[in-house]
């Protein structure tokens, strides 16, 4: 699969997740076998006004490439300038625009899924970004504001005409959020009307789900978000399943080592205090279903240092093996 002239070695994309797909998490997922990782959703206005907090989100490492950087906004000028700025940084292999976020504060700005109601403005934004960069250019969309999927098809056609090189499609409506069921039939419909690659997203919990989506919809690749939070190995498992029809479950030992890697990455990136506060929730993702998980989660609520976190993991692992 190619996005413009970028060769993608695999069929898996990590979905952009606000507050989750930061640099340490992306690096972890990349090391676990994901083909393409994506940044958190980054405000074009924040880049435009040189917000320190926003610019920090653009930190990257060579080891996570290829990297897709996702921006959001409703002003064509700042969106174009943000894309140009990211291009000049040399960190991104793909520029992506968010047309799917249904969080109220984003919608109030006229950004995210709000743009699916205003195709004239959407077209101006697409043109501004395409004119600003020669990088591979993608967008991520939802079904729109009703269940028909017509808004998605209409926006996708405009995007293709404006030089967008691939589209990631999460076929839930704006009102659904992450609730209900994703309508994979709409992915198949979109694939039939576009010449550019379509990346399917929604309700992929297992490698088998990814295989079903690829076969049922004809999409070119799959995008996984929430499932990767609990199982960072799911992307490599999908690659195995698509290639061979089978996949390997990670041993608990491998999971614990990835937990330790995440701790080290978070402390290096955020600093010890902030990292430990964030890790109180994030480390719990990895041990769901394991014996003693409830007690481990309770102990995490008082996590205060990386040394304590590493000790907790090693104690958990030792108790699991007895």
Q: Can you give keywords for this protein?
A:
alpha/beta, 2 domains, 15 helices, two-stranded antiparallel sheet, Non-ribosomal Peptide Synthetase Peptidyl Carrier Protein, Chain A, eight-stranded parallel β-sheet, 322 residues
Write the topology of this structure.
Layout (H helix, E strand, L loop, with lengths): L1 E2 L2 E2 L4 E3 L8 H9 L5 E7 H5 L3 H5 L10 E6 L3 H14 L4 E6 L4 H4 L11 H14 L4 E8 L5 H12 L4 E8 L10 H10 L4 E4 L5 H11 L3 E4 L1 H5 L3 H11 L7 H19 L1 H11 L10 H8 L5 H15 L2
Parallel strand pairs: 3-10, 4-5, 5-6, 6-7, 7-8, 8-9, 9-10
Antiparallel strand pairs: 1-2
Structure overview:
By secondary structure, the protein is an alpha/beta fold. The chain folds into two domains: 2-244, TIM Barrel (Alpha-Beta Barrel); 252-320, Putative flavin oxidoreducatase, domain 2 (Non-ribosomal Peptide Synthetase Peptidyl Carrier Protein, Chain A, Orthogonal Bundle), CATH 1.10.1200.80. Helices cover 48% and strands 16% of the residues. It has helices spanning 23-31, 44-48, 52-56, 76-89, 104-107, 119-132, 150-161, 184-193, 207-217, 226-230, 234-244, 252-270, 272-282, 293-300, 306-320; strands at 2-3, 6-7, 12-14, 37-43, 67-72, 94-99, 137-144, 166-173, 198-201, 221-224. The strands form two sheets. Strands 3-10-9-8-7-6-5-4 form an eight-stranded parallel β-sheet. Helix 4 links the parallel strand 5 and strand 6. Helix 4 runs parallel beside helix 6. It starts with a strand and ends with a helix.
